[in-house]
Design a protein that fits this description.
- The chain is globular.
- It has three helices and 39 strands.
- It is mainly β and 564 residues long.
Length: 564
């Protein structure tokens, strides 16, 4: 948290006019009272800006300290309740790479700090709070206290509490507060703040969750904790319409199957608290030989992954990538997804062999627009097929965070690579797992996977022709028109360009498979499409590809069950 000398010097960056009369105060030092011990914090929240679940609203936080003599608060931690989240994606994520205190681009709050010099002469300083690069490895971000473009003291650590934390998965902010200014002893008596644009939780428990503050003082290391209830309303009004897709491909040398699942939904929807995925046993059966890669202890650090997971959140500028492990014991199997910092999440799904089902429960209240899990094939693959029945329907049963909405999302699929399946060994590239979300809210997003046939030339470029009612939002980049909000997984973008209303994407290097996400910032929805969103059964997408040998192909695909 910093050395004692660092703490004492924290406010030396303040401009002299912020504390007029410091020299006079120093001359009065002889009259200062003797320092006492211990401080008592009190906390008040101001939620006048709104309390709606899942909304973005400002939150006032007023902290008062009742010091004895000249004692002052030292280490202070803000524990935000689960689901009350800061947006680390502001300014396109630039705030996490370069500190900029010169303007409001990275400003996330305002406030005032009040301190008593020598324990009895009040001084008040206006400040802003700015998002800056993480001060330590594993942090989500840093938070700087800014006075007129100059940082006051060290950067606060903004962290995500990990899965299993007693306070739940949420944001923690660690501050170190000063007790001197220009060599003059000060005692902080109040920090009045307004944090801008916090994303509210999507649960409305009968007993509200608590916003907590823990603090000790310079004269007393005993930690004192104070809490205040956070009111959240209108949870049942949130939209909940996740879409589920699945793809499977059998190995050419054995029966094992590479299985990919994806859940997509709009950024304004409620996240899921539980997800149960079931696969038809006649099409996909458990590979009992996978017990050889069973991980009995993740903490041992020697387990072999059986797949990977990718999650995309509107509150973070980059997709999160984790590993999948086959865990548990023969009496209780599970599939565990492990994501590293800055979102240290461990999601465990109970595996029921009798029903060929994996159920994840207790998922954190974090908005995800895309959650994709791919289980590898090969000797340790968890699923296999004999191709006697290559096609079937998988089911996802999903429940929202508040527990009052459940969606059953079936998806028909065919195992590629089975004789007569018409896939895997085909002659042309394929679009799989296509999905559109956010139509009814006016914030549409498009997702799909693009892959080249096995043993064929890799993909070098592709063009997207959108379904009717959707169009790209053009931005000028020099003399060319391009779009923002396009992300690729498994490939890197060399260039984006608009041609006759279609998006042309050129890759830095050719790849065999990639996942494409076109976010709501890149798309415009017609009023007519939005008006009939709830009645649409399918949308038609066209993708034109060019491989590394210059061969072109056109793919037409129907997007069934578009998400609302």
């Amino acid at each position: 948290m910093g050395s004692r000398e660092e703490k004492h010097g924290m406010w030396h960056g303040l401009r002299p006019n912020a504390l007029a009369g410091v020299a006079v105060l120093a001359a009065m030092a002889i009259a200062a009272p003797v320092a006492g011990a211990s401080i008592t914090p009190t906390l008040t929240l101001n939620q006048s800006a709104g309390t709606a679940a899942g909304s973005t609203a400002n939150l006032g936080v007023d902290l008062k300290f009742a010091p004895t003599g000249t004692d002052s608060p030292d280490d202070m931690t803000l524990n935000l309740p689960p689901g009350l989240l800061a947006n680390a994606a502001i300014d396109g994520g630039a705030c996490l790479t370069t500190a900029d205190l010169s303007d409001t681009a990275c400003q996330v709050g305002t406030g005032t700090v009040t301190a008593d010099a020598f324990g009895y002469i009040p001084i008040t300083t206006p400040v802003t709070f700015d998002l800056v690069p993480p001060p330590a490895a594993g942090d989500l971000a840093g938070l700087a206290v800014n006075s007129s473009g100059t940082q006051i003291g060290s950067t606060a650590d903004v962290k995500v509490r990990p899965s299993g934390d007693p306070d739940g998965v949420g944001i923690t902010i660690d501050f170190v507060l000063p007790d001197s200014l220009y060599g003059t002893p000060i005692s902080i008596t109040e920090i009045s703040s307004t944090f801008d644009g916090l994303r509210y939780p999507t649960t409305c428990p009968s007993t509200p969750q608590s916003f907590g503050v823990s603090v000790d003082s310079y004269s007393d290391p005993t930690v004192d904790t104070v809490t205040a209830p956070l009111t959240v309303t209108r949870c049942s009004s949130l939209t909940y319409a996740p879409a589920f897709t699945v793809t499977a491909a059998r190995d050419s040398a054995d029966k094992q199957v590479k299985l990919s699942t994806q859940i997509v939904q709009g950024a304004d929807q409620a996240p899921s608290s539980s997800v149960s995925l079931s696969f038809p046993p006649a099409v996909l059966s458990p590979n009992l030989a996978a017990v050889e890669v069973l991980c009995k202890s993740l903490s041992a650090g020697n387990c072999t992954p059986v797949g990977s997971a990718t999650a995309t959140s509107p509150l973070y500028p980059r997709p999160l990538t984790g590993q999948a492990y086959f865990t548990g014991s023969t009496s209780g199997l599970s599939l565990t997804l492990v994501f590293p910092s800055p979102f240290p999440l461990t999601l465990t799904g109970a595996v029921t062999l009798a029903t060929n089902t994996t159920t994840f429960s207790g998922l954190p209240d974090i908005p995800l627009t895309d959650l994709a899990v791919t289980l590898d094939s090969g000797a340790g693959g968890l699923y296999q097929t004999n191709c006697l029945k290559p096609s079937g329907t998988a089911n996802a049963v999903l429940t929202d965070q508040n527990g009052d909405k459940t969606v059953t999302a079936p998806d028909a699929f065919t195992v590629a690579g089975c004789p007569g399946s018409g896939a895997g060994g085909g002659s042309g590239p394929a679009v799989t797992a296509p999905a559109v979300t956010g139509l009814s809210s006016g914030h549409p997003s498009l997702h799909f996977t693009l892959s080249a046939p096995r043993n064929a030339a890799k993909l070098r470029a592709f063009t997207i022709e959108l379904p009717g009612g959707l169009s790209f939002v053009a931005h000028r980049s020099g003399r060319r028109a391009t779009v923002r909000g396009v992300r690729l997984s498994g490939a890197r973008i060399k260039s984006l360009a608009l041609s006759h209303g279609h998006l042309v994407v050129t890759l830095r290097s050719a790849v065999s498979r990639l996942r494409v996400t076109v976010g709501s910032a890149a798309l415009r929805e017609s009023a007519a499409l939005r008006a009939r969103a709830k009645r649409i059964k399918s949308l038609r997408l066209t993708v034109l590809t060019t491989n590394a040998k210059g061969k072109r192909a056109t793919i037409h695909v129907e997007i069934k069950h578009p998400g609302l």
